[in-house]
Amino acid sequence: MAIDKYILVTGGAGYIGSHTVVELIQRGFKVVVIDSLVNSSYDAIVRAEYIVRSPIPFFKIDLHDKAALNKVFDDYAIEGVIHFAAFKAVGESAQKPLEYYENNVGGAVALLEVMSTHGVKTIVYSSSATVYGDVSRFKDHNYLPINEKCPTDPVSPYGKTKYAIENIIADLHSSDNSWRGAVLRYFNPIGAHPSGLLGEDPLGVPNNLLPYLAQVAVGRRDKLNVFGNDYDSRDGTPIRDYIHVVDLAQGHVAALEYLKTLEQGQGLYRVWNLGTGKGSTVLEIHAAFSAVVGRELPYNVVGRRAGDVLNLTADPTRANTELGWKAKLTVEDACRDLWKWTMENPYGFQVKNFKWSLFNDPGAEVNFASRLNTFTFGDFSVTIANYGATIQNIAFKGRTVVTSMDKLSLYQSDDNPAFGATVGRYANRIRNGTFSIDGVTYHTDKNWRGHTIHGGSRGFGRQFWLGPVAKSDETHGTLEFLIYDKDGSNGFPADVIATAKFTVDEKSLRLEIEARIPESSPKDVTAVNMTNHVYFNLSSGETIDGTIIKTCTDTILESDPDYLLPTGRVIQYKQKLSESVDLQPSNPIDNCFVAKVDGFKLDTRGDEMQTIVEAHHPSTGFKLTAATTDPAFQIYTGDFVDIGPYKARAGFCVEAQRYLEAINNEHWNKQVILRKGEVYGSDTIYTFS
Ligand code: NAD
Fold first, then answer.
1. How confident is the model over 62-98, as pLDDT tens digits?
2. Which of 40, 160, 207 best tests ligand 1's pocket when mutated (most atoms within 8 Å of CB)?
3. Which atom of ligand 1 lies at the shortest distance from residue 158's CA?
4. 339 and 376: one domain?
5. Number of structural domains, the chain?
6. Alpha carbon distance 300, 308 (integer Å)
7. Is 244 a catalytic residue?
8. Phi and psi torsions of 505, nearest 5°
């Protein structure tokens, strides 16, 4: 079997690194990322995963930690490295030169040593146009636009560290000419990912023009300072070659692909400029960004800044011809994408009222797979785990109102009765794990007494979801998770991409579910029924006994008592839940109630929300109201719960969903048959008072 080969991206959580990770994966490369997160946030990786719809192995490692780095090389078959990890602030480097040499040069040496030990001799390196220094220093030669033959003379300690590393790679190649070093000298990277999900996240005052302008536009800074308008340019302000970060990222992919075309054992050391070849002045950029924002942003001309030069424009001909790469996007594109990123993420990856933590299992901190994502508004707080898009906790007025465990291993155990899980692709039962659509019969994983329950043993509630994309304003926050379930998963046909969007405010949790079959799916039809399986407990005690519950209906789908599979008949429940009953142990419930008797749709989200259950407990006075657009809901009083501290009747479920086993009933199945081009959707809200 062929072993998957990986590209290691150092500094992959950073601005340029995260965009490059996305481009690499979209070009078919497998990627592993290391980053110390000293100047970035893991949320960039979360967002990158969301964009590419697949997990990205990540390790929080500092380059100097050679033991940890060695382990990554031991565990992954790495064929090449793209090296971004470095400190990059020119001004700061003049104040802290030793830290810059230590981190940038020391870190690169450590990386190259580990690569050498593992026989990995391919490196694409992030260098900078800053290594050329001030090209106006040549009085008798015009080096503009700057090509790779221009003599180098970096001025700042930062620039010198970049140049030192270039030389180290060149020397390695001289010592062993099977090394392949691609040195990419970037001009001025700008912009953000067009999805609005990734961008530069400057911590503190931005050093660069566009991030600064963006903060002026959102009111975080008063005005832009233009450093000098007495240069010999079109409008007196300095000229730079601004390159869209996505073009830049694609330049790395092109360099890597170029190195792969070399003969086996053949090495190379080569420098390429990555720029557009077109210069823009500071005032031109100001005008372009102001146009996107829709108003003239305030600016003030101040004196020249030490170290600034008139013109740094690239001659990118070498990269254009040799790498077959050319910048395609314009300054206007970059301004538009930056503005989208800024509007949608005004504080970068920091989201108000949101924090994430990790489950309390050993080793959880190494790769962040077991994240717990929490929004808090006032005295209402909701935590959703990536595992199963699980509602791991809801706290109301200082008390926990759901069953909640602190270990991922407990959620992963066979004893877990789907606590809080977002279950799919097919919630509830499928008789004998068998169903037919369009005359084709499918067999699904029989994970429960000869039948399928909750989508099989690797249903959605038992997989890690990607994301969440977290966003908030003053009053509410959203967490959007995504799962990409492949054709054949648990025996179901067709790829399915499902999203679960949780919205939290100061008293309610809303869950919008959507599922589609992507265009690329090998099959065109499947069965979908999704819900959340949270267990509520309003009593603050060990059981739900004494909870008073009232439903919108007493109509249920008749089911056999042993397997709870439907008979096809619609009947009245034996008690009048619609007139309130006390949940006592003598009164176990596990039935599918009917909220809508007709008008079945696949996407119910446009329908009016119907209150399906009201429940309260006299001991706390807490009240829960559940409303949904779904046509049915299962009520389960948790009589078989036995996990960790939780025993029978530790919580009750109100699972808004489709009719029980609708897939095997010709009158009900249009609720659950999803075809390519169609959308499955539901909307449910739980409100506490
Ligand atoms: P960034 O700060 O966003 O990314 C650098 C990443 O490296 C960060 O995520 C940081 O946490 C990580 N890192 C730093 N030191 C580390 C260490 N010792 N171990 C592990 N991780 C470490 O910066 P960026 O703008 O994405 O720049 C990426 C690279 O491109 C840098 O090497 C920079 O010098 C170079 N570059 C940037 C620009 C620019 O204008 N942004 C221009 C030319 C070159």
1. 999 999 999 999 999 999 999 999 999 888 999 999 9
2. 40
3. 34
4. no
5. 2
6. 17
7. no
8. -125, -155
